[in-house]
Specification:
It comes from Brevibacterium aurantiacum. The structure is a single chain. By secondary structure, the protein is α/β, with parallel strands linked by helices. The chain is built from 13 helices and 13 strands. The chain has two domains: 123 residues, Aspartate Aminotransferase, domain 1 (Alpha-Beta Complex), CATH 3.90.1150; 233 residues, Type I PLP-dependent aspartate aminotransferase-like (Major domain) (Aspartate Aminotransferase, domain 2). The strands form three sheets. Strands 2-8-7-6-5-3-4 form a seven-stranded mixed β-sheet, with helices on both faces. The protein has a four-stranded antiparallel β-sheet with strand order 9-10-13-12, with helices on one face. A two-stranded parallel sheet has the order 1-11. Helix 2 runs antiparallel to helix 6, helix 5 crosses helix 9 and helix 11 packs parallel to helix 13.
Length: 386
């Protein structure tokens, strides 16, 4: 039994998160709700990956693994991400308990308490919570109207910052940062000590050829940490398998932090991840084709609602929809939930996300169409009926 006194004792880190977090607290949706809120594929993990996990367990891959990550998996990831720039020995890869643990380890490794960290936003809301946890100061810089980097503003904010966090492709915007903007950012940061942390969790879900990894931008060379995950591309959200790509020196520090907090990543999961890289390509293409079809339908459905505007998603499976009614985004999200469609409030993703909602099209076409029907009826006026 916890005493009343102990129940009120929290660390300053917890209190900072409680006071500043924009992330939703959750709650039970009403019966019959359509969920367009979750950032999770509605596909199961490819069978070849599940079978690999099963076989690994049968083969006795049930013991502690390498604290830096399975060597063969790290070598395979290095061959994919940096064969042209680094030896494919895997020493610049750190395998982590999903991308969230990667983010926590990277920020702990490169950011001191009290430091400033620049976040071009709207952007993934976990960044702010992690920064609050370690006692750093998030500095928000709005994206441009077309959801690209405002490079001069980001560079100005980063003059004395420890890091800049990019989300590319964007959550919640669905935008892909242009190669030109990344190159210009690198030039503008010359002389700065800021590390560029590029969260590329959705790099495998892109609808044209526009995506360029920050690691492949020469002007950013020497200051980039790429964060990625198997969760989205391979529909492996519950497996918790992520990784970072950076210099060997920084990778060693990231691994030190990660293993201090978490220990080694599940050994059998890593063996399954290796099979995903090598054998699940056709499954990935199948899922990507489905997202393409859903994306086109979302563009059509959004165009039928006069009260909203939306930039066409270029990557990930999100549409960031701005509306022209005078209500806070959180209120709109709550009222839509009452009408039976779950979305995320744009304000969750930063100050300039106000006046918008995020919908996920990682859902069935049937749910997408029904969800948009309810959204359209909501914006049409108070006569909404289920």
């Amino acid at each position: 039994m916890i005493s009343d006194e102990a129940a009120t004792i929290y660390s300053a880190a917890v209190e900072r998160i409680v006071q500043t977090s924009r992330r939703p607290k959750g709650g039970a949706p009403r019966d019959g709700s359509v969920a367009l809120s979750m950032g999770e594929p509605n596909f199961d993990t490819p069978p070849v990956v599940v079978e690999a996990m099963h076989q690994a367990l049968l083969d006795g891959v049930t013991h502690y693994g390498d604290l830096n990550g399975d060597v063969e998996l790290r070598q395979a990831l290095a061959a994919i991400h940096c064969a042209e720039t680094s030896p494919a020995n895997g020493r610049n890869i750190s395998v982590t308990h999903g991308a969230s643990a990667a983010l926590a380890a990277v920020l702990t490794a490169v950011v001191d308490p009290g430091s400033r960290v620049v976040i071009p936003e709207p952007s993934y809301s976990l960044y702010q919570d992690l920064l609050q946890m370690i006692g750093a100061q998030p500095v928000f810089v709005p994206l441009t109207k077309d959801n690209q980097l405002d490079v001069p503003a980001v560079a100005a904010a980063a003059v004395d910052a420890a890091a800049v966090i990019l989300c590319n492709p964007g959550n919640p915007t669905g935008a892909v940062l242009s190669a030109e903007s990344l190159h210009l950012l690198g030039r503008e940061l010359a002389g700065s000590g800021a590390v560029v942390i590029s969260d590329e969790a959705y790099s495998g879900i892109v609808y044209n050829d526009s995506f360029v990894s920050a690691r492949d931008v020469k002007s950013l060379s020497g200051r980039v940490v790429v964060i990625n995950t198997f969760s989205k591309t391979y529909a492996m959200t519950g497996w918790r398998l992520g990784y970072t790509v950076t210099s060997e020196e920084l990778a060693a520090r990231i691994s030190l932090v990660h293993r201090t907090l978490n220990g080694a990543v599940n050994s059998a999961v890593q063996r399954a991840g290796l099979v995903a890289l090598r054998q699940a390509g056709s499954d990935v293409e199948h899922m990507l084709n489905a997202y393409r079809i859903r994306r086109e339908r979302v563009i059509e459905l959004a165009a039928e609602i006069p009260e909203v505007t939306m930039s066409d998603p270029e990557g990930a499976f999100y549409a960031f929809i701005r509306y022209d009614i005078d209500k806070p985004a959180q209120t709109v999200a709550e009222e839509l939930a009452e009408k039976g469609v779950l979305v995320r409030a744009g304000s969750e993703y930063g100050p300039s996300g106000e006046g918008a909602i995020r919908i996920s099209f990682a859902a069935s076409l049937r749910d997408i169409e029904e969800g948009f029907r309810r959204i359209r009826d909501y914006f049409a006026g108070p006569g909404f009926q289920l």
